[in-house]
């Protein structure tokens, strides 16, 4: 009878721990949208109403990771990778071109302008003088966009739940980091900073697991199960940049960069 009671208590503890862990070794991850806009930023950008006026010509300069954060690894090795993805300017260019399906911004290449100029020199040298003189001039931007990812704050919030009975333990943990992006629009004519916007995006990680060790007569029962899921940092950064572009566009309409079409 005593052995049955012990087995019943063990079974109850196992069921409670499984319930705490979500009845699944891999927890469900709920991503948090950017704080600038609670809707789907990508859909909002793509469905922005096209302006009545022409697109604004912009150039992207030095939009890089400025947070200085390094990747934290659970392995006992020296990790030189950065916490945030590189190539942020490429992401910014893509989101600018997505805005209103390319009807708001015309983006000129400035990060690799040396390659563009070198190729133009090759073209000019390869063509007859009459054809070379007909080569169109480079498009000149009136606004340059700069800034970058300025922060990556770790563990801004933690949610931990655990339950243990005898030798059985269950745990579920959710950790939230936060990435911050600043985007500035600067006038080429005057050098004045026309608009500066800040967007933040939460990066959520979750893990759950259950473990236990129990002695049954001359035998030992040991078990462990669990899993973890992490929101991709690259997706979070892209969402933050898209949110910054969305807010920049709203400020641009207020400042008269474009003329809205009448309804």
UniProtKB/TrEMBL annotation:
The keyword Lipoprotein is annotated on this UniProt entry: yes
Ranges in a coiled coil: none
Name of this protein: Curli production assembly/transport component CsgG
Superkingdom, taxonomy of origin: Bacteria
GO CC terms, sorted: outer membrane-bounded periplasmic space
Keywords, sorted A to Z: Cell membrane, Lipoprotein, Membrane, Palmitate, Signal
PANTHER family: CURLI PRODUCTION ASSEMBLY/TRANSPORT COMPONENT CSGG, CURLI PRODUCTION ASSEMBLY_TRANSPORT COMPONENT CSGG
Residues of the signal peptide: 1-21
């Amino acid at each position: 009878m005593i052995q049955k009671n012990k087995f019943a208590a063990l079974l109850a503890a196992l069921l409670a721990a499984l319930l705490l862990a979500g009845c699944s070794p891999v927890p469900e991850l709920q991503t948090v949208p950017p704080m600038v806009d609670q809707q789907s930023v990508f859909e909002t950008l793509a469905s922005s109403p096209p302006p009545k006026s022409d697109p604004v010509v912009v150039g992207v300069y030095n939009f890089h990771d400025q947070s200085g954060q390094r990747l934290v690894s659970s392995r006992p090795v020296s990790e030189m990778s950065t916490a945030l993805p590189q190539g942020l300017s490429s992401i910014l260019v893509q989101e600018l071109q997505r805005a209103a399906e390319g009807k708001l911004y015309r983006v000129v290449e400035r990060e690799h302008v040396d390659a563009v100029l070198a190729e133009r020199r090759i073209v000019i040298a390869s063509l007859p003088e009459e054809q070379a003189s007909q080569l169109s001039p480079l498009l000149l931007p009136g606004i340059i966009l700069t800034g970058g990812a300025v922060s990556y704050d770790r563990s801004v919030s933690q949610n931990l739940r655990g339950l243990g009975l005898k030798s059985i333990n269950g745990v579920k943990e959710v950790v939230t980091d936060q990435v911050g992006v600043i985007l500035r629009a600067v006038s080429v004519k005057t050098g004045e900073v026309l608009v500066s916007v800040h967007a933040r995006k939460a990066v959520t990680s979750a893990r759950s697991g259950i473990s236990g060790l129990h002695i049954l007569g001359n035998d030992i029962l040991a078990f462990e199960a669990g899993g973890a899921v992490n929101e991709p940092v690259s997706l979070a950064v892209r969402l933050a940049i898209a949110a910054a572009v969305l807010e920049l566009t709203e400020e641009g309409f207020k400042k008269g960069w474009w003329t809205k079409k009448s309804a």
